[in-house]
UniProtKB/TrEMBL annotation:
Residues 1-30 are annotated as: Disordered. Residues 86-203 form the Methyltransferase domain. Keywords: Cytoplasm, Membrane, Methyltransferase, Nucleus, S-adenosyl-L-methionine, Transferase, Transmembrane, Transmembrane helix. The keyword Transferase applies. GO terms for biological process: methylation. It comes from Otolemur garnettii. The chain crosses the membrane at residues 81-102. Residues 1-11 have a biased composition (Gly residues). InterPro entries: Methyltranfer_dom (IPR025714), SAM-dependent_MTases_sf (IPR029063). This is Methyltransferase domain-containing protein. SUPFAM superfamilies: S-adenosyl-L-methionine-dependent methyltransferases (SSF53335).
Length: 206
């Protein structure tokens, strides 16, 4: 699944229906929850990078929040041990993580254009410690496993807006997360759609 808010296409901000709560699937479906939308976003960003060398920026959750995530990682997991899994987007976030000193990073996205863009940015930055894979997180390969840390800063928000049975896709996400993380692994998530209490409820079965 794409880390929808990682790119320059804007954060996946939800509109709630007049009834219910997220547990009742009360988000109004949006194109921001579809693969077609993010494929188009990363195709445009890839073309922009190829023509102008523009790498984009962290538009959500912003540099300050990103620094907090990185500092949290550093306090809880030694740099030499950390095996980090991050949803790609346009690569800007995990480039920041790599520059902080973490040396074992895997980035995935279901959009080949996002992976191509990420690879180009990594090459431009001169980084060699990042592995990239085209993967759909809702149906991950068996090779995607054993991570100390998983960081999500937009993917779950985007999934929550999918017009095609978002409730089941959220459950698939939780199941996939339990597969890719090690026992007692860490899951770091930022969201502009969910409160802390709602997220704890969503992931309580993971």
């Amino acid at each position: 699944m794409s880390a929808g808010a990682d790119g320059g296409g804007g954060a996946a901000v939800a509109v709630r229906s007049a009834e219910g709560s997220p547990g009742d699937d009360s988000f109004v479906p949006s194109a921001l929850g579809t693969r077609e939308h993010w494929d188009a976003v990363y195709e445009r960003e890839l073309q922009t990078f190829q023509e102008h060398g523009y790498t984009g920026e962290i538009c959500w959750p912003g540099p300050e929040s990103v620094n907090r995530l990185i500092n949290w990682n550093n306090r809880h997991v030694p740099l030499r041990l950390a095996n980090i899994f991050i949803f790609c987007g346009n690569a800007i976030f995990f480039v920041a993580v790599a520059k902080f000193g973490f040396s074992n990073i895997t980035g995935i996205d279901y959009s080949p254009s996002a992976i191509q863009l990420s690879g180009s940015i990594i090459e431009k930055e001169g980084l060699s410690n990042i592995k990239l894979k085209v993967e759909d997180f809702l149906n991950p390969s068996t090779k995607l496993s054993g991570f100390h840390i998983c960081i999500d800063k937009g993917t779950f928000d985007a999934i929550s807006l999918n017009p095609d049975n978002a409730v089941e896709k959220r459950k698939q996400y939780v199941r996939s997360l339990s597969r890719v993380l090690r026992v007692k692994g860490f899951f770091l998530i930022t969201s502009c759609n969910w409160t802390k209490e709602e997220l704890l409820n969503e992931f309580s079965e993971g």
